[in-house]
Design brief:
single chain; 459 residues; mainly alpha; Fumarase C, Chain B, domain 1; Fumarase C, Chain A, domain 2; Ribonucleotide Reductase Protein R1, domain 1; 3 domains; two-stranded antiparallel sheet; two-stranded parallel ribbon; elongated; binds arginine
């Protein structure tokens, strides 16, 4: 018997059922659904809607169902529309008609909103651990490369030398923000909608604050009409995952590029590289391409679901059922991706020599301008003078360090013998000691801050 069949003479059309039934995906909410019902049974007994004895019977039945789910022996039936109806159907099978009292004052609208929040809260804790593992891998790799100098890029053109540790840690801080956003969303979604009924609240004396606490929520919702249709927690989580995907995708792009033989800066471990069925020499960075590629669907789920939400009238609408497949898929995608990316980073080999060879003295042009600045030349003028030096060295086809001091002096009399000291990549890096800079000493304090962050902010 469907849960709402009383007012209909005909059974629901089969094609509509295939479209409407959410059991194929919302069965993932089974544990949350039963957990919610156990506490709900207590709450309505407390409100004297059912007797303590009835509540006991219901809870015993629900415990058996929980056990069936845990042992994976729960049998779904074709008539089950969604996880909520399946559990209720089974409860009545197990304990008889008294099971039909459980849904008093409750609607699937407040029920599903409760179940799904509980599920997302759980997942956030799990994802947070996975992100943390990736952060730890970035730190461990950075520790090895505090003194490895590589070209840094802007516009993907060689810009200034940086340390490889600085490059690696740049992703650490993106992930810090992602974790903070997740935690922020976690607190905001920790609000129980249960006891909101279908839209207008419940006429029974349910202590919603106690019910919320028993369910593990921080607090309860203030407006039943909002509570049943609020899916901000889904949209926010989709956003955080889409943005984190965007960060992973950017990391992926760097790794793909730097592992290209034209760069040759890094090599992926054999276990995390793939070959070509045709070209024997190929060594592809598939895991990183997948990170980049799958970010497309993370962004897709976010825009898709916001589009679902934007035109909805007040209260629950069936459109909201779209929330689950989107978020399930985003969570699964990220959960599958993170351990692989973590392993790629942990096993990545950085090729110090190749990185060093890729450094050209052009990358020191800014330092050359700074040399003049230190002698009192306004930066704008120094920039212009060094631009002329760059042109001159390009025309002569020799690097800065091979020019005569007299050649420098044709562009500015302030150039002196000590100009040659500028052409030292390590020295250039070591100069950037201001907080947040690329100098090994600055990166050392960055690393300390990173380690501190990791040890403090565990969920
Ligand atoms: N399967 C539904 C969902 O996921 C459950 C809520 C159904 N509510 C309703 N009034 N039909 O949103």
């Amino acid at each position: 018997m469907a849960l709402w069949g009383g007012r209909f003479q005909e059974p629901t059309d089969g094609d509509l059922r295939a479209l409407n039934d959410s059991l194929p995906f919302d069965r993932r909410l089974a544990l949350q659904d039963v957990h919610g019902s156990i506490h709900y049974a207590r709450a309505i007994a407390d409100a004297e809607v059912i007797t303590t004895d009835e509540a006991e019977q219901i809870i015993t039945g629900l415990r058996q169902i929980l056990d069936e789910f845990e042992r994976e022996v729960f049998e779904f039936q074709t008539s089950d529309e969604d996880i909520h109806t399946a559990v209720e159907r089974r409860l009545i099978e197990v304990i008889g008609q008294v099971g039909g009292k459980l849904h008093t004052g409750r609607s699937r609208n407040d029920q599903v909103a409760t179940d799904f929040r509980l599920w997302v809260i759980d997942q956030i804790t799990r994802l947070d651990v996975q992100i943390r593992d990736l952060q730890a891998a970035l730190i461990a790799q950075a520790e090895q490369h505090l003194h490895t100098v590589m070209p840094g890029y802007t516009h993907l053109q060689p810009a200034q030398p940086i340390t490889a540790a600085h490059w690696l840690l740049s992703f650490f801080w993106m992930l810090v923000r992602d974790r903070e956003r997740l935690q922020d969303a976690y607190h905001r979604m920790n609000v129980s909608p249960l006891g909101s009924g279908a839209l207008a609240g419940t006429p029974f004396a349910i202590k919603r604050d106690e019910l919320a606490q028993n369910l593990g929520f921080i607090t309860y919702s203030q407006n039943s009409l909002d509570a049943v249709s609020d899916r901000d927690f889904v949209a926010e989580t989709l956003f955080v995952l889409a943005l984190m995907g965007t960060h992973l995708s950017r990391l992926a792009e760097d790794v793909i590029l730097y592992s290209n033989p034209a760069f040759g800066f890094i090599q992926l471990d054999d276990r995390y590289s793939t070959g070509s069925s045709l070209m024997p020499q190929k060594r592809n960075a598939d895991p990183m391409e997948l990170a980049r590629g799958k970010t497309g669907r993370l962004i897709g789920h976010l825009t898709g679901f916001l589009t679902t939400l934007k035109g909805l009238p007040s209260g629950y609408n069936k459109d909201l059922q779209e929330d689950k497949e989107a978020l399930f898929d985003s969570v699964d995608t990220v959960a599958k991706l993170l351990p692989v990316i973590t392993a790629v980073i942990a096993t990545l080999k950085l090729n110090r020599d190749q990185m060093h060879q890729a450094l050209s003295e052009d990358l020191l042009a800014t330092d050359l301008a700074d040399y003049l600045v230190r002698k009192g030349v306004p930066f704008r003028q120094a920039h212009h003078v060094v631009g002329q030096v760059v042109r001159h060295s390009a025309m002569r086809g020799v690097p800065f360090s091979q020019l005569e001091v007299s050649e420098f002096q044709t562009f500015s009399p302030l150039f002196d013998q000590d100009v040659l000291e500028v052409f030292d990549f390590r020295a250039a890096v070591e100069k950037r000691v201001a907080l947040g800079g690329t100098a090994p000493s600055a990166v050392q304090s960055q690393l300390e801050a990173a380690r501190k962050y990791l040890s403090h902010l565990i969920n």
